[in-house]
C-alpha cells in the first residue's frame, strides 16, 4: 500500500486522501501522510548567503510496521540539484533530512537518505523538511515552483 502527497517548494499545498465511510478490512490497517509546503519567499540574486526554509511531513500508522518516507526528484532529472522552474528559467535548490543540509532527502538511492523506522501504532509523527536555495544564482524575476511527492511505504 502506498499513500502519496505533494510538497510544493513555493506554494503551500496539502492533499489529504479521503477516508472511505465503510472501509474494507485491509483499509483499517495502514498509514496516512500529509504535508505543509516549503516556501522560500523572495530570493535575491545579490544575497551572498543561501536562502533556507522548512516544511513538514506528517504521518501516522495504525499498526507498528516498518515505514519508509521518501521524497521524489520533483521536476528535476536528478536529486542533486532539484530545480525550481519559471518557464525556461531554472533555480537550483534542494531538500534535506537535517538542519545542517548534509543529507539530501530522496528515496535512499545514491547519496540520498530517507526516513526508515518501525512506527509506533497511532503515533502522529512530524518530520521537518529543510529546504535550501544556494546563493547568487543569476536568474530572472518571477515565480519559481516545483512539485515534490512525499511517499510513505509500509
Report strand order across the widest sheet. Answer: 2-3-8-6-5
First-last Cα distance: 7 Å
Q: Given the helix and strand composition, which structural class is it?
A: mainly beta
Q: Main beta sheet, described?
A: 5 strands, antiparallel
Outline the secondary-structure elements:
Elements: E1 2-8, E2 31-36, E3 51-61, E4 66-71, E5 82-86, E6 89-96, E7 115-118, E8 125-133, E9 147-153
Antiparallel strand pairs: 1-9, 2-3, 3-8, 4-7, 4-9, 5-6, 6-8
List its salient traits.
single chain; 154 residues; mainly beta; 5-stranded antiparallel sheet; 4-stranded antiparallel sheet; 41% strand; disordered N terminus
Commentary on this structure:
By secondary structure, this protein is mostly beta strands. The chain has no helices and nine strands. The protein has strands at 2-8, 31-36, 51-61, 66-71, 82-86, 89-96, 115-118, 125-133, 147-153. It has a five-stranded antiparallel sheet with strand order 2-3-8-6-5, with no helix packed on it. A four-stranded antiparallel sheet has the order 1-9-4-7, with no helix packed on it. Strand 5 and strand 6 (89-96) form a beta hairpin. It is elongated, with a radius of gyration of 17 Å. 26% of the residues are buried. The model is unreliable at 1-23 (pLDDT under 50).
Amino acid at each position: 500500500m502506498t499513500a502519496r502527497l505533494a510538497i510544493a517548494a513555493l506554494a503551500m499545498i496539502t492533499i489529504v486522501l479521503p477516508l472511505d465511510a465503510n472501509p474494507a478490512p485491509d483499509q483499517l490497517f495502514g498509514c496516512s501522510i500529509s504535508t505543509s509546503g516549503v516556501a522560500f519567499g523572495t530570493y535575491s540574486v545579490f544575497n551572498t548567503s543561501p536562502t533556507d526554509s522548512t516544511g513538514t511531513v506528517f504521518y501516522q500508522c495504525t499498526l507498528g510496521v516498518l515505514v519508509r518516507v521518501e521524497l521524489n526528484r520533483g521536476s528535476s532529472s536528478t536529486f542533486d540539484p532539484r530545480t525550481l522552474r519559471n518557464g525556461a528559467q531554472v533555480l537550483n535548490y534542494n531538500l534535506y533530512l537535517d538542519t545542517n543540509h548534509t543529507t539530501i532527502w530522496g528515496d535512499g538511492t545514491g547519496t540520498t537518505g530517507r526516513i526508515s523506522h518501525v512506527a509506533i501504532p497511532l503515533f502522529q509523527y512530524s518530520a521537518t523538511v529543510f529546504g535550501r536555495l544556494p546563493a547568487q544564482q543569476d536568474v530572472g524575476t518571477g515565480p519559481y515552483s516545483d512539485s515534490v511527492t512525499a511517499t510513505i511505504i509500509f
